[in-house]
Amino acid sequence: MADSKDFIAGVDSNAKKSPRRIVFITRRTSAQVKAETEDQIQTFPEVLFRAAVAVMTLAVVLVWIALLFNAPLEGLADPSHTPNPAKAPWYFLGLQEMLHYFPPVVAGVLVPGLVVMALIVIPYFKVNIEADGLFLKDRQKRRRIFYIVAGALSIFLFLFKVYAALVPTLIMTGLMLLAAQSSLQSPSAFRRYLAARPLSYWVMTWFLFELVVLTAIGTFFRGPGWSWVWPWQGS
Amino acid sequence: MAKTADQHFNDLRGTRIWRSIFRSGTGSSTLKRALAIQQNVFLHLFSTKVRTRMLSFSATWYLGTLTLGTFLILVATGIPLMFYYHPSVPQAYADTKDLQFVVSSGLFLRNLHRWSAHAMVFLVFAHMFKVFYRGAYRAPREFNWVIGVVLLLITLLLSYTGYLLPWDQLAYWAITVGSNIASAVPMIGDKIHFLLLGGNAVNANALLRFYVLHCMILPLAAMFFVAIHFWRIRKDGGLYAHSSEPAVVRAQAAGVQPPTASRGGETGSTPVDAKEAQ
Questions:
Q1: Between A3 and A135, where is the model more confident?
Q2: Is the distance from CB of B264 to CB of B135 less than 8 angstroms?
Q3: Which of B30, B163, B181, B189, CA to CA, is 20 to 30 A from A90?
Q4: How far B19 CA sits from the closest chain A CA (Å)?
């Protein structure tokens, strides 16, 4: 960008093939900016080869698992005999755990509906695109909102005795409190990291935490009548 | 002088029959390598070039590739399983038993299908979180993220409908528990429940519906959206790499302090910029 000219002019000389065109490219238009400065590699064969190796490694692992562990198969379906507990597939056990605490319309319809909606709208919010640290701007105001939201959520979960969801919420709240007291100039690398986390990071990490905890509880810690059992107690 | 395997392969690529099948032709110049991708109906969904940095394991953990891998394994094992399976009551259970004890490698096929299905659900979730934490949903990739959410739901439905097919106690009651949730939808809950099961309880109609959804409709829907998902990666400027984003490159070229990586911030990138990169 050393030249002082503000534009480049060119003439397409191949008049036989195309009508004569004169092009002006000003410095500000993207046409002059070379967006790709990085090393690139041909997809064929290098990338395809790596993808094939990745898939084959996965296949080998899954074949070993299939050879060593048999898929479960119980007795013939019997509508007159309900097993206790009757469990959904593992990826729905987080939901089933929620159903234990809340009415079906909340846990089975409202919550999953809101989760899907929230996932879809993530890229359409400017706050997620800019991704500034949550407490870096308007610190006082944002802290106040955070205290109210986290407090209300915790009290709500406590009143409904949803301790399984309350514990991850409290841990995340603790981390966010630390983030709210930290800045990008903090001497601790961990606190600098926390201070730079944007809102979407906190919400998604909280969701991931709840998902893992609730699914694990539903899978390993629930026995007859959805009562709490330890995995080593058997059923 | 004996020819190497490479030369034999090159000769093969030069034959008339090979040339009639693959449009890209022989040679290993950059152009020919690009054509090998671009002139193939399946491979043209991908870019001809990929940023070298994005090949490293840490960039993507190969989660998208591995998810596709599980899908391919599921198709490959699912078709032979269909050969031995009748979606009727109680024949479905007897067929599953036969697969377990009578059919050659039937047990292995069913095991592989089942564990791959679990792996696919897990990998789809992992892929989603990895993409989120990389910030790869940013413009112009917003809609590809939405397609990804659709694919997540299709994957869950695929796994859920497949869960009923063995027609054992585990399958029956898991689907009963799951489908009862549909009844909780206000106003039209019972209608949805009835539509899903073809009855008021899990029965032979439900088995047939789940079978058709599992073997026909949902796999086709998955392939349809997967094709768009891959194609959009190419059209949106390849795998997301923060430092290669047009706004960041522009800022660097102008000698401005680029947005720091920790912020992951990048604004003002337009779809035009990304298309240009293609």
A1: A135
A2: yes
A3: B189
A4: 17
Closest-CA distance, A232 to chain B, in angstroms, reads 21
Interface of B with A in 22-51 (CB under 8 A): 30, 33-34, 36-37, 43, 46-51
- Residue A154's domain comprises 90-233
| Residues from chain A contacting residue B142 (CB–CB below 8 Å) | 123-124
Return per-residue pLDDT of chain B as tens, 278 residues. Answer: 678 888 888 888 888 998 888 887 777 888 888 998 998 999 999 999 998 888 889 889 999 999 999 999 999 999 999 999 999 999 999 999 999 999 999 999 999 999 999 999 999 999 999 999 998 998 889 999 999 999 999 999 999 999 999 999 999 999 998 888 888 888 899 999 999 999 999 999 999 999 999 999 999 999 999 999 999 999 998 888 877 676 676 677 776 554 444 434 333 333 444 444 43
ipTM of the complex: 0.86
Helix, coil or strand: residue B232: helix
- Is A35 within 8 Å of B51 (Cβ atoms)? no
List residues bridging with A76 in a β-sheet. B168
Q: Read off the amino acid at residue B115.
A: W
Q: Alpha-carbon distance B250 to A84, whole Å? A: 62
Residue A223 distance to chain B (closest CA, Å): 15
Residue A69 lies in a domain: no
Confirm or reject CATH 1.10.3300.10 for domain B58-236, answering yes or no.
no
Interface of A with B in 166-185 (CB under 8 A): none
Cα–Cα distance measured from residue B100 to residue B90, given in angstroms and rounded to the nearest whole number? 16
pLDDT for B261 equals: 43
Domain membership flag for residue A84 = no
Pick B263's closest partner by Cβ from A71, A196, A204.
A196
In a domain, A204, yes or no: yes
- H or E element that contains A23: strand A22-26
Sketch the domain layout of chain B as residue ranges. Answer: 58-236
**What is the number of domains present in chain A?**
1
Average pLDDT over residues A61-68: 97
Residues of B in contact with A207 (CB under 8 A): none
Q: How many CB pairs under 8 A join A and B?
A: 236
Please answer yes or no on whether B50 and A44 come within 8 Å at the CB atom: no
β-strand B49-51 against A40-42: which pairing, if any?
A: antiparallel
Question: What is the rounded CA–CA span in Å between residue A73 and residue B117?
Answer: 16
Max alpha carbon distance in chain A (Å)?
Answer: 86
Q: Phi and psi (nearest 5°) for B56? A: -65, 150
Per CB-CB distance under 8 Å, the chain B contacts of A70 are 100, 107, 111
Residue A4 lies inside a defined structural domain of this protein: no
Q: Which of 61-80 (A) contact B at CB < 8 A?
A: 62-63, 65-67, 69-79
